[in-house]
Design a protein that fits this description.
Elements (H helix, E strand, L loop, with lengths): L2 H5 L6 H8 L3 H29 L4 H29 L1 H18 L5 H13 L7 H9 L5 H29 L2 H22 L6 H6 L7 H4 L2 H30 L6 H20 L7 H13 L7 H29 L5 H30 L1 H32 L6 H8 L9 H8 L2
Helix pairs in contact: 2-8, 3-4, 3-7, 3-8, 3-9, 4-5, 4-6, 4-16, 5-6, 5-9, 7-8, 8-9, 8-13, 8-15, 12-14, 12-15, 12-16, 12-17, 13-15, 14-15, 14-17, 16-17, 17-18
Length: 435
């Protein structure tokens, strides 16, 4: 009898050692962690450039931020489709050159030009935000992807904690112009690194099963994938809204100086939750995690100072990274390998849209009803979206049960129920079925 299995805890860290021992995984995680930092710093740098150099308000700066967010959301599926068809390197070259031109000239742009160019530059950019998830799906066996995506979610947290802060430091201690150039250098460096690394986007078995015929979107965009996208958008809606409302609560309590402490504590809780989630032998599905995230966010409405916020954010923070890691894991299993880049592009779009919608709506609720109602609105909306995702996924499970011969049916049943799938390859089945 395996004594470690009999007496061991429900969560263990051996899966992380096995994942990191796989060839290329460490390099992908390290490069993706670095590669996300310059664009995240760039968003803050452009905000400060508009306010400090162009002498416009935060409303104008927010419009530039929103334009870039929606540009990225529009471009992600397109770049994913190009990656599926032509491979990674041509897309990286195109995106890196486009970004280099933008960051080299942004410091001389007028506001209207910056607004348009910021949107366009995010439509065509190196896919640093999604490529790690696609590469991990190719490099890591299905039964090990949960810890792999948990590590990726921790890497995302590190990038988000580093990028904006670094942008503020350079822009305020040197100048917004210098910060713009620094972001440009960082973006080019990450593009060059991604070009040289050139991680695989499909496993050898998946490459053998992928044909030349393109799989139509209506063939693979099943209800299960729609449920994952709803979960992702709902989760980032909550996260974007929570960040705004935390600042509003602290400002209302005259404790704004503690904002960085509270937000860092929230990020640490998220990373901890991600690591715990990846080590679980069994874990709930992403929609269930998002439902819990919504409920725990509603409870934040009772916190009215920085100490209570730090304490109340612990359960909500512990659920942030697991929700996104679970969604990425589900997407990697449900999307056929032939269109995984496009599917991960839609995943990235859902991330961006949720954040872009949640942030201003939370601000509006705070202005109209007060900070506590901001948490209630954010969490309540998340609960509604989670229930919708569960209903959609239940429809997919019901359809799969009724038609077990449907490509990917077993996979959909297992993934959407939060169970470990049997390791089948819906990608190859769908690819062959489409030819």
């Amino acid at each position: 009898m395996d004594r470690s299995r009999a007496k061991g805890p429900a969560m263990h860290f051996a899966p992380y050692r096995r994942v990191l021992a796989l060839p290329g995984v460490k390099s992908v995680l390290a490069l993706s962690t670095y590669g996300r930092i310059p664009p995240l710093a760039g968003s803050m740098v452009l905000t400060l450039y508009v306010v400090l150099e162009l002498k416009l308000g935060f409303g104008a700066a927010g419009a530039v931020f929103s334009a870039s967010i929606f540009g990225g959301a529009l471009g992600a599926p397109l770049l994913g489709r190009l990656t599926d068809r032509y491979g990674l390197r041509p897309v990286v070259v195109l995106g890196t050159v486009t970004s280099a031109v933008f960051w080299a000239t942004a410091g001389w742009m007028s506001y209207p030009v910056l607004l348009i160019a910021g949107f366009a530059s995010r439509v065509i950019q190196a896919p640093v935000f999604t490529i790690s998830r696609q590469a991990l799906a190719a490099m890591v066996p299905e039964e090990q992807r949960r810890p792999a995506y948990s590590l990726d979610s921790v890497a995302v947290e590190l990038s988000y904690m580093t990028g904006p802060s670094l942008g503020v430091v350079i822009a305020t201690q040197m100048s917004p112009q210098a910060a713009i150039w620094a972001v440009g250098v960082g973006v080019v460096a990450s593009g060059v690194g991604l070009y040289l690394l050139n991680p695989p986007l499909r496993s050898e078995a998946e490459e053998a099963g992928v044909g030349t015929a393109r799989i139509p979107v209506r063939r693979w965009l099943r209800p299960g994938i729609v449920a994952v996208l709803l979960t992702v958008a709902g989760a980032t809606f909550i996260l974007g809204a929570t960040e705004v409302v935390v600042v509003a609560v602290l400002e209302h309590a005259s404790e704004l100086a503690w904002a960085s402490v509270v937000l860092i504590a929230w990020g640490v809780c998220s990373m901890t939750g991600g690591l715990v989630y990846g080590g679980l032998r069994r874990a709930p599905g992403p929609a269930v995690l998002m439902l819990l995230l919504g409920v725990t966010t509603v409870l934040l409405a009772f916190a009215d100072d920085w100490i209570w916020l730090c304490l109340a954010l612990i359960p909500a923070g512990l659920l942030c990274a697991p929700t996104l890691a679970g969604a990425a894991d589900a997407m990697s299993r449900l999307a056929p390998a032939a269109v995984r880049g496009e599917a991960m592009g839609y995943y990235g779009s859902a991330l961006s849209i949720g954040m872009a919608v949640g942030t201003p709506l939370a601000g509006a609720v705070v202005d109209l009803a007060g900070p506590s109602w901001g948490f209630a609105a954010a969490g309540g909306s998340g609960v509604v979206v989670a229930v919708a995702a569960m209903l959609v996924s239940r429809h997919d499970r019901s359809a799969a049960a009724a038609s077990p011969a449907t490509p990917g049916a077993e996979q959909a049943r297992a993934v959407l129920a939060g169970a470990e799938p049997a390791g089948t390859q819906p990608a190859g089945q769908l690819a062959s079925a489409s030819q």
